[in-house]
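Why does this matter for the project? Reviewers at the last site visit asked to see concrete outputs rather than summary tables. In response, this paragraph embeds two records directly. Each consists of the residue sequence and, immediately after it, the corresponding structure tokens. Nothing has been edited or filtered.
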Amino acid sequence: MIALVAAFVFAVPLELRLEARPQIVFAPVLNGYGAVAELALGRVFSPSPHADVKMELGVVLGYANAPYAQAAWLGRNERVNGAEHRVQGWVVIGSAVRLTESRRLVLGLQLALGFTHLRIAGTLTNAQAAVSVRRDDSDTLFVLGVDLYAAVIIAHGIGVSAHVVGHPLPWAFRVTGYASLSLGVIALLPI
């Protein structure tokens, strides 16, 4: 096992992928928004003159917020405050292909495993129905998901990327399950 890790880390050429991107989160109860930062180290293979294949290992950190005021299920007489907060920390392992002679098009698939911490805090009030409810709860769960991404490198290793992420696998439509879409900036740096 140590030999496998050493071969991955010390083999050349290596490439560092840095990404920062806002995200839109699609969850069972509420949709939200947030931000993600990703750092991945990849070992590049060159199987043909028109494509490079890269194995990657990295980390992803993220935060998402889903304000209750955006909930579609609210009635005219209901008042809410608060939000769902998600903190994500994942290790990703995957593969990417850099296509075209200039290697400007990148397509990747990653397996993400780690945790999602969900904090739910807020109140719901309906004066007409004499209802006032407060909820404050949190939970941290292990997640396993898939991250499919595409990037276009514009110049000098800098470009734009798009990610579609689904958690958990197998998909379970529960409070901790979600999908996200994110667009951002990518930097590919040879090491």
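We now turn to the second protein, recorded in exactly the same manner.
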Amino acid sequence: MNKSIAVKNIVFVGFFQPSKFDKFFFIKNGLVKEDEILEPSVFSPEVVQFRTTGVSIAILLNQIIIHQVDILQDRIDEIAQKLIQSSDLEITAIGINITWNLSPDESLENSTKNFFLNERNEMFSKFFNSDNVMYGAYVSKDISGGRLKLEIKPQVSKRLHDNIEIARFISFAFNYHFDHDKSKNFDTLLNAVKNYKNFIKESEEIMSIYG
């Protein structure tokens, strides 16, 4: 059974002005160095989008997305903290997203049935009990002033140009969600970002259940 992290990103939701975030802003505030910014890059009044060898950053009118590109250069939490501290942002929420992909030894039908089927659930036993059924799960809980939402889904990946199947796996999408009260300071959001590596550790502990 193989498993790996497919996605790590931190998303700010709110109201932003991309025009405020020119190349000099990121350099001046120590988010990136000038020679780290790769081409092509976009710095316009409507959108900012660039990448380094380690991260990509996109700023839209309603979102800021800091995405890890290189697994060996995991510093998106450091960038997110500096961004919060160095600018007057209208943030309404933050999401810390960690997605694992699990490739089971058995078929998706058999493995998801073994993992997630609740035979006491009347809906499953009456309507979803054939051999071709795939199962998933959704769970959530309060955590560190926010809410962890874990969505588990079987996935079949196909090539776009010819629709040929290329991979089957189970996606475990961890979303650590934190709302922001505008009447308060950014301490809750900063603490959430500072807990980034603890959230990764928790996701690793959960994934250890599956081999």
